[in-house]
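To close the section, here is one more complete example, presented without commentary so you can practise reading it yourself. The ligand is NAP.
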Amino acid sequence: MSVQPGNYRVQNVAFGTYMDMFAGSSAWGTRITGWAGGNNLHQLWQFEPVGDNTWKILNAASGTYVLAPNHIINEGVVGGTPPDVFTFIDSDGSYQIKLADESLVLYLASGESDTQITLQAADGGDNNQFCKLCYDITTASPHNVAFAIVRNIATSTHLTAFVTESKKNNVHVLQADLADHVTLKDAAARAAESTGGSLNVLIHSAARIEVPTMFKRVTDYEDDKKLEEDFLQYYKVNTVGVVHSINAFLPLLRKGTTRKIVILSSHVGERNITWDLRIDVQAAFGASKAATHMVLTKYAVLLESEGFTAVGLLPGIVDVSATAVDARKSYLLPYWL
Ligand SMILES: NC(=O)c1ccc[n+]([C@@H]2O[C@H](COP(=O)([O-])OP(=O)(O)OC[C@H]3O[C@@H](n4cnc5c(N)ncnc54)[C@H](OP(=O)(O)O)[C@@H]3O)[C@@H](O)[C@H]2O)c1
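Output:
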């Protein structure tokens, strides 16, 4: 499998310990060691592409790169700049991390925490020379845990089937309603119990999408009362619900390693797109999503100094009717095609 740019924890196959920038120090020459797994930034590494399968490896805590002061056998690797450039050599999902254009690879001699990683000649033995790359923010690794939060577990039949069939046992389903902040706090508390109190990424997808009113213009409602109710309900779930969701999980995210908040947004909440494409339908829904953009920007400003990234993601037009609980949603797609 080819390596993709991104954030990883790098685990030694032989000992199960993780590549660790000692104490997260940014001082040049800080030793890089194998260390027992910890939910911290100094065990998080960003792979930055240089060229064709050549990479710089940046530590998230220190902001410095992996390098070996001298390219000789037994040399300890340290943090600093300029970075060395590495190539990942795949071996059934594990990798040798090799100095580009040279034969020496990263090597861990012992499973004792604080054992410095060194350069060695590659001998093909996966007991000590291979490192396994674990995606940090996906469920690709059984070391990661994902929580799927739905408002009704009983009717979430596709999700239940996915979890039941999954062999990884690392996806947990929790129940909460965006219109009820108490249930969100409760879900966050249950997630915290499983993770020891932390969460790396919050991806908020849920939104009120009511088939009968979804495509109404501001002048389409039967009466003013129905208009007001619909606008307020969209706002309650899609805007205030997002705020409750982020607030509930914020304490966990603050204890996580990546501090990312992603909200599924919508093009009908974008003023430029609405004007350029002359979209007059989806008035209440669009207004609630536009308000969500503002709320998200407020979080981005509020949490910037803590190293958070808070973004809205526009997924484009996606046919989700195959897994819809409300079969009428399949009729929404033709509006956009
Ligand atoms: N599909 C697209 O083309 C498209 C385009 C642009 C943006 N998006 C965005 O992508 C996200 C997902 O959309 P989708 O297409 O997957 O829509 P969807 O199939 O209607 O899914 C929306 C989900 O939100 C849940 N939900 C609604 N009200 C809730 C509440 N009060 N509390 C908790 N959950 C609630 C629904 O739960 P139930 O299953 O219980 O009804 C449903 O699972 C939305 O934010 C949407 O705006 C989608």
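Once you have examined the tokens, check your reading against these statements. Residues 6-135 form a domain with the Trefoil (Acidic Fibroblast Growth Factor, subunit A) fold (CATH 2.80.10.50). Helices lie at 157-165, 181-195, 224-254, 271-276, 283-303.
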